[in-house]
Amino acid sequence: MIILGISCFYHDSAAALVKDGILIAAAEEERFTRKKHDQGFPYEAILFCLNQTHAKISDVDYIVFYEKPLVKFERLLSQHLEKFPFSYFSFIKAMPQWLNEKLRIRSIIKKKLKYTGRIVYLDHHLSHAASTFLVSPYEEAAILTVDGVGEWATTTYGYGKGNQITLEKEIQFPHSLGLLYSTVTAHLGFSVNNSEYKVMGLSPYGKPAYYNQFKKLIDVKEDGSYALDMSYFVYHYKMVMPSDKFIEEFGPIRTGEGALEQHHKDIAASLQKLTEEVMFKMINHLHNIYKTDNLCLAGGVALNSVANGKISKNTPFKKVFIQPAAGDSGSCIGAAFYVYNSILNNPRKFVFDSCYLGPSYTNEYVKKYLDENNIVYKEFKNDKELIDTTAKLIHDNNVIGWFQGRMEWGPRALGSRSILSNASNPEMKEILNTKVKHREIFRPFAPVITQEDAHDYFEMDTDAEPFMLFVYPFKEKVRKLVPSVVHVDGSGRLQTITRRQNFRYYSVIKAFEKLSKIPILVNTSFNIRGEPIVCIPHDAYRCMMGTGIDYLVMENFLIARKDNPKDMWDSESIAKD
Question: Is the pTM of this model over 0.90?
Fold first, then answer.
């Protein structure tokens, strides 16, 4: 049985294919189209998923859409009618996409894919819940989903057991913890549905000086249920998010190019403190109800790795599972598994313990690309030469573009399309931010560490997870050893890796440890600001030649930037196009 899950027409469109209860392939559309957060129909991602399993569209038994468009449209009409005539311009701007795309999912699927089979629609938050519980290692678990908004729900909680999920409570639009976070993101001059993680990254630089002001915005009960004071917001009927009252409380909206001042950092810190408080109250309430040690989280707010890293210390849950694409893109996985496991009542037989679900390219493909483009390269003779050479280059403070195997699933680079460098070099953070990533200087870089070494370097009382979704404090004695991955508050958003998950990636870290005595590297996504993570060999070569990356290790080949002409790869044109 083949089931294809789809999420699209909001942000981060994606597709996933489940065959006989096993997740075979999953990818975001942006990786193929090169449009950051592409929200269009995920045609290229669907083609990839079908090709990965050598299937035709006629072989697909079910296509499952991750939400119910008609119910969502009902909510849109309701919110705009309630605020008419103030909502007029927002409503008029939204209508073309709804009439041309969002209400025509069935006809678009049939037309674009020439599909004549069965199409199923699931509730948005049920897709979120399924995307975490049904692929978790737990037989039973409490489930919490928190995001901006689905159809009506913004927060839900419930329980999963076996192959069934029950969502028992929900908070409805316009009251939304996710939209509160997005409102502050907009107020701080960052892009909504794109840069919320920047606010999280900015928060350790500030103090929660605005915490009491934020308490005016939201009424939080002891069980974590909440309601926003909507006089501070206009997102429910305008194309902007904060109201004049919000601006009076927190100051003028920062422009994208304006200086980040201390009060901006304090606002971020205050928001983060409030978010954690609400999340921990909800999570503690779930434990009181369901009496289980296992928790599954999903929704965009579940990508708040700073809060995630504090769950074990602030709640009784001993085990927490979060799927790497916890936001809307990952809902296509939940949609597919819910049909297979819960509707069709098939037993669960897949556990999400590896993120490598995207396309890969053979050595023959890569060599052909290099030769056809007259690119100078060296071919490694074996794995040992590749691993030892890469580790030595990193130890010598070179920046490495690392392109190996199947592309990662989710927003984080996890050792397949990564940039790797020496975490022990105190100048590496500035080098990467200014010469490679072209991004804000406050942004931290993440450490990758071998799983068996994680507890020696981090203060953590749970098992380390592999998807870079939890922030933990470094041990005091370690912080001076890896200054380029230690955040201002002494923490790091770590990824762990095992030999089984990714042999070459793991082995490079171990080879680096032999040279440096430290099993930690800088791992950041292989892209520049404003572009998706690289997907194909051309993306990787183009990114290297337009940045300060020194070497590209692409499958069995080593390409040095200094050995190849730069005239057609001017960094300014690369950054702009």
Answer: yes
User: DSSP string covering 17-57, please?
Assistant: EEETTEEEEEEETHHHH--TT--S--HHHHHHHHHHTT--G
Residue-wise pLDDT for 326-358, tens only, equals 999 999 999 999 999 999 999 999 999 999 999
pLDDT at residue 575, as a whole number: 37
What pairs with residue 298 in β-bridges? 145
Confidence band (pLDDT; 50, 70, 90) for 415? Answer: very high
Q: Are 148 and 300 in contact (CB under 8 A)?
A: yes
Domains of the chain, CATH where assigned: 2-135+326-343 (3.30.420.40), 172-322 (3.30.420.40), 363-576 (3.90.870.20)
Alpha carbon distance 42, 337 (integer Å): 19
Q: pLDDT by residue (tens digit) across 148-190? A: 999 999 999 999 999 999 999 999 999 999 999 999 999 999 9
Distances (CA, A) of 267 to 175, 202, 206, 416, 446: 20, 9, 7, 35, 23
Q: Using the CB atoms, write b or e for 410-436: b if 16+ within 10 Å.
A: bbbbbbbbbbbbbbbbeebbebbbeeb
Q: Report residue 294 CA to chain centroid gap.
A: 22
